[in-house]
Design brief:
single chain, 226 residues, mainly alpha, Fumarate Reductase Cytochrome B subunit, two-stranded antiparallel ribbon, 2 strands, 62% helix
């Protein structure tokens, strides 16, 4: 009978987990409200138009959530310098040849299904690191374009920091189009992300799913026979 010794690793610290779930809620709310802003529903009512403020409410929720999303992202930037080795920014920078070889190996397992044995990684594997780095760039792009458009209707200091975005990118309409297309990046990424989390949790059995709740992952330490 084969026995397996399991070792626990505290991978995701509390600030990383809080960031993850706040970000997940924000992205969901922003995508739903953003879609409604881009393609508003034609709701009809017999009441006075001044009483039907549903679209204004959608915009208000979108704007408030955008502020939460932005400052949550700022907190993650800080924790990339202050957190443990799994949270540090150097994990997301894929420069070494070994990392690119690992990306190919992960693709063979996750996408091509050419290998059945998953790679042993405690934190993010190289492909996940590269993907998350690209999402951070997308986060920044969405914040800049979103607040750039919002600056036209707000005197707040934060949107005004990005007022230069609209003229640089060719006007309000162009910025709205780019902002809307980036929304679909997040939607597609979310579906793939959720699928791969469940996939790795099932195949590897290391607590990938629960690790973003409790912070712990479980790695096989050694094997023996009884």
């Amino acid at each position: 009978m084969e026995t397996v010794s399991i070792r626990r690793y505290y991978v995701w610290q509390l600030p990383v987990r809080v960031y993850h779930w706040v970000n997940a809620v924000c992205v969901t709310v922003l995508c739903v409200t953003g879609y409604l802003i881009g393609s508003p529903l034609a709701l009809q009512s017999s009441s006075e138009a001044s009483f039907g403020y549903w679209f204004g409410t959608v915009r208000f929720v979108h704007f408030v959530t955008a502020f939460v999303f932005f400052f949550n992202f700022v907190g993650r930037i800080y924790w990339g310098f202050a957190g443990n080795s799994y949270a540090r920014w150097n994990n997301f920078l894929v420069f070494r040849k070994s990392q690119w070889r690992e990306i190919i190996e992960v693709l063979k397992v996750d996408i091509l299904q050419a290998k059945a044995q998953p790679l042993e990684s405690i934190g993010h594997n190289a492909l996940a690191s590269l993907t998350y780095f690209l999402t951070f760039i997308a986060f920044l792009f969405q914040c800049m374009t979103g607040f750039g458009m919002y600056a036209a209707m707000s005197d707040s200091w934060l949107p005004q920091l990005f007022a230069w975005i609209v003229p640089v990118m060719g006007g309000d309409f162009a910025v709205r189009q780019w902002h809307h297309m980036a929304m679909w990046f997040f939607i597609i990424f979310s579906f793939i992300h959720v699928y791969l989390v469940f996939y790795h949790d099932y195949v590897e059995g290391r607590g990938v799913l629960s690790s973003m709740v409790g912070g712990w992952k479980f790695i096989e330490k050694e094997k023996g026979k009884n």
